[in-house]
Amino acid sequence: MVARDKARLVVLASGNGSNFQAIIDACENGRLDAEIVLLVVNRPGAYALERARTHGIPSRLIDHKDFADRESFDAAMAEAIDAARPDWIVMAGFMRILTDDFVDRFQGRLINIHPSLLPKYPGMNTHARALETGDRVHGATVHFVTPTVDAGPPIVQGRLEIFDKDDVESLKQRIHGVEHRIYPLAIDWLVKGSIDFDRAAAQTSPAVVDASGALIVPPSP
Protein backbone atom coordinates (compact mmCIF):
# COMPACT_ATOMS: atom_id res chain seq x y z
CA MET A 1 0.00 0.00 0.00
CA VAL A 2 1.33 3.42 -0.94
CA ALA A 3 1.36 5.83 1.99
CA ARG A 4 -0.80 8.89 1.47
CA ASP A 5 0.96 12.22 1.76
CA LYS A 6 -0.07 14.36 4.68
CA ALA A 7 -2.45 17.22 3.96
CA ARG A 8 -0.66 20.52 3.51
CA LEU A 9 -1.86 23.47 5.61
CA VAL A 10 -1.08 27.16 5.29
CA VAL A 11 -2.05 29.14 8.38
CA LEU A 12 -2.80 32.88 8.38
CA ALA A 13 -2.40 34.75 11.69
CA SER A 14 -2.05 38.27 13.02
CA GLY A 15 -1.25 37.98 16.71
CA ASN A 16 -0.66 35.54 19.53
CA GLY A 17 -1.54 32.45 17.53
CA SER A 18 -3.13 30.26 20.20
CA ASN A 19 -5.28 28.48 17.62
CA PHE A 20 -2.17 28.09 15.48
CA GLN A 21 -0.54 26.38 18.47
CA ALA A 22 -3.53 24.06 18.89
CA ILE A 23 -3.17 23.01 15.24
CA ILE A 24 0.60 22.54 15.65
CA ASP A 25 -0.02 20.31 18.67
CA ALA A 26 -2.62 18.25 16.80
CA CYS A 27 -0.21 17.72 13.89
CA GLU A 28 2.68 16.81 16.15
CA ASN A 29 0.78 14.36 18.34
CA GLY A 30 -0.81 12.56 15.39
CA ARG A 31 -4.38 13.73 15.87
CA LEU A 32 -4.17 15.44 12.48
CA ASP A 33 -2.78 13.71 9.40
CA ALA A 34 -1.46 17.05 8.21
CA GLU A 35 1.57 19.29 8.24
CA ILE A 36 1.78 23.07 8.39
CA VAL A 37 3.90 24.07 5.41
CA LEU A 38 3.72 27.83 5.91
CA LEU A 39 2.62 30.48 8.39
CA VAL A 40 1.74 33.89 6.90
CA VAL A 41 1.59 36.84 9.32
CA ASN A 42 0.63 40.42 8.50
CA ARG A 43 1.88 42.12 11.67
CA PRO A 44 5.54 42.44 12.75
CA GLY A 45 6.08 41.17 16.26
CA ALA A 46 3.15 38.74 16.18
CA TYR A 47 3.92 35.96 18.64
CA ALA A 48 2.69 33.42 16.08
CA LEU A 49 6.06 33.94 14.35
CA GLU A 50 7.87 32.75 17.48
CA ARG A 51 5.63 29.69 17.66
CA ALA A 52 6.55 28.86 14.06
CA ARG A 53 10.27 29.31 14.76
CA THR A 54 10.08 27.07 17.83
CA HIS A 55 8.47 24.27 15.84
CA GLY A 56 10.54 24.64 12.68
CA ILE A 57 7.63 25.83 10.55
CA PRO A 58 8.44 28.11 7.59
CA SER A 59 6.95 31.59 7.99
CA ARG A 60 6.47 34.75 5.98
CA LEU A 61 5.84 38.24 7.29
CA ILE A 62 3.83 40.18 4.72
CA ASP A 63 3.11 43.48 6.43
CA HIS A 64 -0.13 44.96 5.12
CA LYS A 65 1.22 48.44 5.86
CA ASP A 66 3.78 47.97 3.09
CA PHE A 67 1.05 47.90 0.45
CA ALA A 68 -0.91 50.75 -1.09
CA ASP A 69 -4.25 48.98 -0.94
CA ARG A 70 -6.02 45.84 0.14
CA GLU A 71 -5.93 44.35 -3.35
CA SER A 72 -2.14 44.48 -3.69
CA PHE A 73 -1.64 43.05 -0.21
CA ASP A 74 -4.01 40.17 -0.91
CA ALA A 75 -2.28 39.51 -4.24
CA ALA A 76 1.10 39.24 -2.51
CA MET A 77 -0.35 36.95 0.12
CA ALA A 78 -2.03 34.77 -2.52
CA GLU A 79 1.28 34.42 -4.37
CA ALA A 80 3.00 33.20 -1.19
CA ILE A 81 0.17 30.77 -0.48
CA ASP A 82 0.19 29.34 -3.99
CA ALA A 83 3.95 28.77 -3.78
CA ALA A 84 3.37 26.58 -0.69
CA ARG A 85 0.87 24.36 -2.57
CA PRO A 86 -1.59 23.95 0.31
CA ASP A 87 -4.61 21.70 0.45
CA TRP A 88 -6.23 24.00 3.04
CA ILE A 89 -5.77 27.62 4.08
CA VAL A 90 -6.58 28.12 7.76
CA MET A 91 -7.29 31.56 9.24
CA ALA A 92 -6.24 31.54 12.90
CA GLY A 93 -6.81 34.99 14.33
CA PHE A 94 -6.09 36.71 11.02
CA MET A 95 -7.46 40.19 11.54
CA ARG A 96 -7.94 41.38 7.99
CA ILE A 97 -11.02 41.59 5.78
CA LEU A 98 -10.16 39.70 2.60
CA THR A 99 -11.01 40.93 -0.89
CA ASP A 100 -13.58 39.07 -2.94
CA ASP A 101 -10.88 38.12 -5.47
CA PHE A 102 -8.79 36.47 -2.76
CA VAL A 103 -11.75 34.57 -1.34
CA ASP A 104 -12.89 33.45 -4.79
CA ARG A 105 -9.38 32.21 -5.56
CA PHE A 106 -9.34 29.88 -2.56
CA GLN A 107 -13.04 29.32 -1.85
CA GLY A 108 -13.74 25.79 -0.74
CA ARG A 109 -10.25 25.48 0.76
CA LEU A 110 -10.30 28.57 3.02
CA ILE A 111 -11.64 28.25 6.57
CA ASN A 112 -11.94 30.50 9.60
CA ILE A 113 -12.92 30.30 13.26
CA HIS A 114 -15.25 32.89 14.77
CA PRO A 115 -16.00 33.37 18.49
CA SER A 116 -19.78 33.08 18.38
CA LEU A 117 -22.50 30.65 17.43
CA LEU A 118 -22.98 31.97 13.92
CA PRO A 119 -25.17 33.37 12.48
CA LYS A 120 -25.35 35.12 15.86
CA TYR A 121 -22.91 37.98 16.34
CA PRO A 122 -20.84 38.23 13.17
CA GLY A 123 -18.04 40.79 13.39
CA MET A 124 -16.38 42.08 16.54
CA ASN A 125 -17.05 42.15 20.32
CA THR A 126 -18.94 38.88 20.31
CA HIS A 127 -18.48 38.11 24.02
CA ALA A 128 -19.73 41.51 25.14
CA ARG A 129 -22.71 41.22 22.83
CA ALA A 130 -23.61 37.77 24.18
CA LEU A 131 -23.44 39.07 27.75
CA GLU A 132 -25.41 42.22 26.99
CA THR A 133 -28.15 40.18 25.33
CA GLY A 134 -28.40 37.90 28.33
CA ASP A 135 -27.52 34.72 26.43
CA ARG A 136 -27.13 31.56 28.47
CA VAL A 137 -25.15 29.72 25.78
CA HIS A 138 -22.19 30.97 23.77
CA GLY A 139 -19.54 29.36 21.63
CA ALA A 140 -17.42 29.36 18.50
CA THR A 141 -17.90 28.32 14.88
CA VAL A 142 -15.50 26.93 12.29
CA HIS A 143 -16.76 27.85 8.85
CA PHE A 144 -15.79 28.10 5.22
CA VAL A 145 -14.94 31.63 4.14
CA THR A 146 -17.08 33.40 1.54
CA PRO A 147 -17.02 37.05 0.38
CA THR A 148 -19.64 37.99 3.00
CA VAL A 149 -17.82 38.19 6.34
CA ASP A 150 -18.67 35.42 8.83
CA ALA A 151 -21.42 34.09 6.59
CA GLY A 152 -19.83 31.01 5.00
CA PRO A 153 -21.14 27.47 5.52
CA PRO A 154 -20.44 26.26 9.09
CA ILE A 155 -18.48 23.05 9.67
CA VAL A 156 -18.72 22.63 13.44
CA GLN A 157 -19.69 24.66 16.50
CA GLY A 158 -18.54 24.39 20.09
CA ARG A 159 -20.94 25.46 22.83
CA LEU A 160 -20.60 26.29 26.50
CA GLU A 161 -22.86 27.65 29.22
CA ILE A 162 -22.49 31.28 30.26
CA PHE A 163 -22.16 31.51 34.03
CA ASP A 164 -23.58 34.35 36.12
CA LYS A 165 -20.03 35.23 37.22
CA ASP A 166 -18.72 35.51 33.65
CA ASP A 167 -17.43 38.80 32.32
CA VAL A 168 -15.95 39.53 28.90
CA GLU A 169 -12.45 38.37 29.86
CA SER A 170 -13.50 35.13 31.54
CA LEU A 171 -15.83 34.29 28.69
CA LYS A 172 -13.08 35.04 26.16
CA GLN A 173 -10.69 32.66 27.91
CA ARG A 174 -13.28 29.89 28.14
CA ILE A 175 -14.16 30.30 24.46
CA HIS A 176 -10.47 30.00 23.60
CA GLY A 177 -10.58 26.53 25.12
CA VAL A 178 -13.55 25.64 22.91
CA GLU A 179 -11.75 26.98 19.83
CA HIS A 180 -8.66 24.91 20.54
CA ARG A 181 -10.79 21.76 20.55
CA ILE A 182 -12.99 22.37 17.54
CA TYR A 183 -10.46 23.80 15.08
CA PRO A 184 -8.27 20.67 14.87
CA LEU A 185 -11.48 18.60 14.78
CA ALA A 186 -12.83 20.54 11.79
CA ILE A 187 -9.51 20.27 9.95
CA ASP A 188 -9.44 16.53 10.64
CA TRP A 189 -12.88 16.16 9.04
CA LEU A 190 -11.72 18.12 6.00
CA VAL A 191 -8.54 16.09 5.63
CA LYS A 192 -10.49 12.81 5.89
CA GLY A 193 -13.11 14.01 3.41
CA SER A 194 -15.95 13.82 5.94
CA ILE A 195 -17.08 17.34 5.01
CA ASP A 196 -16.50 19.75 2.16
CA PHE A 197 -17.87 23.11 1.05
CA ASP A 198 -20.90 21.76 -0.80
CA ARG A 199 -21.93 19.39 1.98
CA ALA A 200 -21.48 22.11 4.59
CA ALA A 201 -23.61 24.48 2.52
CA ALA A 202 -26.35 21.86 2.21
CA GLN A 203 -26.61 21.22 5.97
CA THR A 204 -29.63 22.51 7.84
CA SER A 205 -27.39 22.83 10.92
CA PRO A 206 -23.73 22.09 11.71
CA ALA A 207 -22.28 19.51 14.05
CA VAL A 208 -22.03 20.72 17.66
CA VAL A 209 -19.63 19.72 20.43
CA ASP A 210 -19.88 20.61 24.10
CA ALA A 211 -17.27 22.27 26.29
CA SER A 212 -15.52 18.92 26.84
CA GLY A 213 -15.23 18.28 23.11
CA ALA A 214 -17.91 15.57 23.03
CA LEU A 215 -20.15 15.52 19.95
CA ILE A 216 -23.66 16.35 21.13
CA VAL A 217 -25.38 17.19 17.81
CA PRO A 218 -24.36 15.38 14.62
CA PRO A 219 -24.39 17.34 11.36
CA SER A 220 -27.84 17.59 9.79
CA PRO A 221 -28.16 16.56 6.13
Structure description:
- This protein has 7 helices and 9 strands; from the N terminus they run βαβαβαβαβαββααββ.
- The protein is an alpha/beta fold and 221 residues long.
- The chain has 2 domains: 100 residues, Formyl transferase, N-terminal domain (Rossmann fold), CATH 3.40.50.170; 108 residues, Rossmann fold (3-Layer(aba) Sandwich).
- It has a 9-stranded mixed sheet, with helices on both faces.
- Helix 2 links the parallel strand 2 and strand 3.
- The two termini are 33 Å apart.
- The relative contact order is 0.14.
- The model has no long low-confidence stretch (mean pLDDT 95).
Label this structure with key terms.
alpha/beta; 221 residues; 36% helix; 7 helices; 9 strands; Rossmann fold; 2 domains; nine-stranded mixed β-sheet; globular
